[in-house]
Amino acid sequence: FEKDIIIRENEKMEGSYLLKQFIKEGRLIEKLPKLEEIREYYRKQFEKLPDELKIIDKKVGYPVIISDELEKLLHEIKGRQGR
User: Fold this and answer.
1) Bridge partner residues of 36 (DSSP)
2) Cβ count within 10 A of residue 66
3) Between the N and C ends of the chain, which has fewer C-beta atoms within 10 Å?
């Protein structure tokens, strides 16, 4: 783990996506994982974290980046609000 990047839904990015859609328009579109699968995924991900990020009461910096496309959209919206 080195950083998180916040992107728009339609953007493609290298790396792993943190969110996965399971329900769309009220319908299940992806088979839900079993509880044991969720536990195992969490355990493996947690093991990969640097130790300093596992300490809950210690403040540690971790970079979070906003994609260029999302940053551009943000400036467009702010420009419209200023009219």
Assistant:
1) none
2) 15
3) C
Q: What is the pLDDT of residues 45-83, one digit of tens each?
A: 999 988 888 888 888 888 999 999 999 999 999 888 876
Nearest of 74, 60, 81, 77 to residue 8 by alpha carbon: 74
13 Cβ partners below 8 Å, 6+ apart?
5, 7, 67
Q: pTM of the entire structure?
A: 0.65
Q: 46-55: which pairs have CB atoms within 8 A and are 24 or more residues apart? A: 48/1, 49/1, 50/1, 53/1
Residue with tokens 């319908």: 27
